[in-house]
Every structure is written in C-alpha cells, then in structure tokens.
Amino acid sequence: MVEQANARVSVAVAETRLQNVRFNAALNNMSQALCMVDGTGRLIVCNERFAAMFELPLGLTERGTLIQRIFDEAAPHDYERCLMVALIAENLRCARERCAGNFNREDALGRAIAVTQQLIEDGGWVATYEDITERKRGEARIAYLAHHDSLTALPNRLMLTQALEDALEKGVYFAVLFVDLDGFKSVNDALGHMTGDVLLEAIARRLEAGVPASSIAARLGGDEFAIMLPDAGLAEAEALARKVIATLADPFAVGAKTVVVGASIGIALAVGEQLTVGQLLRRADVALYAAKAAGRGRHVVWRPEIAVKGY
C-alpha cells in the first residue's frame, strides 16, 4: 500500500513538473508581456517578455516581490523605465479602484505600450503589455499620407477642405487663394517630368516660407496650389497674393538649369456670408480663371460680376 501511495505521489509530482514546464513554455512564448499580482501587491508570476520589455534584473521578477519595489527601482533611470513607471502606476490605480480595462501609454521617444488589465478575486490583477510602437508609427504614417501631398509634403486637398470646414463652422474670417503656375507645362514638356517634380518641390518650399505661420499652403494637384489665410480681409489677402506672385517670379535653380515660371491667383473671402466649402472653392476657382484670362501674373478677387463672364 505504501509503495502504491509513493508511486501515485511520484506520478503526481512528475505530472505537476510537466505541467509547470508546459505552463512556463506557454508563458514565455507569448508575444505579449504578462504580470500577475496578488491582493497584497506581491508578484505571483511574470514572463520573460515582461522582464525583457522593461529591462528588469532577475531579482525583481521573483515570486513574492512587492510590485511597489519594482515600481520604485524602475523609476527615473531612462525613458523606457519611466514608461514602465507610468504603466504600473495605472495598474495600481485600477487595482485600488477595482476597475479593469485597456489603456495605452507613450513616452517622449515615441515608444508606446498597450495594456489589458483584468482583476482577480483576491484583490490582485493580471495584465498583458504589448509594444505597439511600430503599429502607432504606421498609423501615424497612414494618417500623414492621407492628409499630405506625396511629392511636396504640403497639406493636400483633403486637409485643406477639413480646415476650411472647421473655419466656416466657427464663423471666423479668412481668405482662400488659388495659385496656378504660369508656364509650368512648357517647362515640364521641355525638360521632362523629373525636372518638373523637382521644380514643384522648390515651389512648395517657397510657398511655405512665404506665407504666415498660421496659414495653410496646400497642393491641390498638378501645378495648382492653394493658401488658406486666417483672420484676413481683402487687404491682407491681396497683400499676400502680390507677395506670392513676386516670390514665384524669381528664377529657380533646378540642377544645372535656371527655370522661370510665374503665378496667377484667384481670391475668395469668407467674411460673413453663409457659404459652403464647395461654394468658397468655386469662387476662388472662378477668380483664378479671370486672373489668367486677364493676362496672367496677377491676382483677381471674386466678386459677383465676374461669375457671369463664363470663366
């Protein structure tokens, strides 16, 4: 009977060891970091990914270690550890308030961690930590590309439209300037699209440098650009138009070549009328065509009478 009991104990011990090996293998092959803390604030278990993610020494990851000790010893050494401090502080707050959930934290270097925390019955908690830095950067890149021109890096039509919608909703005064290059097609045809692209980038940089910091200079496509000038009336809009025309008339050095283009500008004002973005852009477009019809290298402000001339 004793031998049978000992045999059963041996089998149970062997099975327990095997289960522990399997548990540790599963725990340490997780892509996420994991930490489990009991109701007294002591570490029950964490995986290798948790220690590696926050560069913790072995002495801090032993069972029974106070999570507050990890918190204290991880603090003010570098950005990554400060991020961990922020994460554990939130873990502790959630544990005190008995609230579970998901949250993200990001440090000054752009490293981002996503946390999922669940409560356990004894007042403790278990949390997983996932490094989402690359995902966040990818999302930011996608958002950037959705709102910026791929060639010039200027805001695109979508970003401009959203800014105009916001301004119209707030009822602020502003001006929209449509800028169309004079002579760009000839340069593009004569020197090729690669030279044309280099020229467009140079034009974009001049526009950025020449407009007020509060304004938006955007590329609409091709050789068409637009400027949103906030807090502007007729005098400010016309002053900027003259400045842009003069700036873009100066020769551009494109490789070994010197290239000269010009610009025509149409101006529309949002100064009290109830306009939609579409109506405002249409007015700027009509004024631009009037400027080009009048001889190019000049600006025209939209007014009702030019709308019936067929531009």
| Low-confidence parts | none
Strand content: 15-25%
Strand runs, count: 12
Structural class: alpha+beta
**Whole-number count of domains:** 2
Q: What is the percent of helical residues?
A: 40-55%
At CATH level 3, the topology of the largest domain is: Alpha-Beta Plaits
User: Which word captures the global form?
Assistant: elongated
What's the arrangement of secondary structure elements?
Layout: H1 2-28, E1 33-37, E2 43-46, H2 48-53, H3 67-74, H4 79-97, E3 101-106, E4 112-119, E5 125-131, H5 133-147, H6 157-170, E6 174-182, H7 184-191, H8 193-210, E7 216-221, E8 224-230, H9 234-249, E9 252-254, E10 257-259, E11 262-270, H10 277-293, E12 299-301
Parallel strand pairs: 11-12
Antiparallel strand pairs: 1-2, 1-5, 3-4, 4-5, 6-8, 6-11, 7-8, 9-10
Helix pairs in contact: 3-4, 7-8, 8-9
What does this structure look like?
The structure is a single chain. The protein has 2 domains: 31-137, 2-Layer Sandwich (Beta-Lactamase); 148-308, Reverse transcriptase/Diguanylate cyclase domain (Alpha-Beta Plaits, 2-Layer Sandwich). It has 10 helices and 12 strands. The chain is α+β, with helices and mostly antiparallel strands. It has a 5-stranded antiparallel beta sheet with strand order 2-1-5-4-3, sandwiched between helices. The chain has a 5-stranded mixed beta sheet with strand order 7-8-6-11-12, with helices on both faces. It has a two-stranded antiparallel sheet with strand order 9-10. Helix 3 (67-74) packs antiparallel against helix 4 (79-97) and helix 8 crosses helix 9 (234-249). A hairpin with a 5-residue loop joins strand 4 (112-119) and strand 5. The chain has helices at 2-28, 48-53, 67-74, 79-97, 133-147, 157-170, 184-191, 193-210, 234-249, 277-293; strands at residues 33-37, 43-46, 101-106, 112-119, 125-131, 174-182, 216-221, 224-230, 252-254, 257-259, 262-270, 299-301.
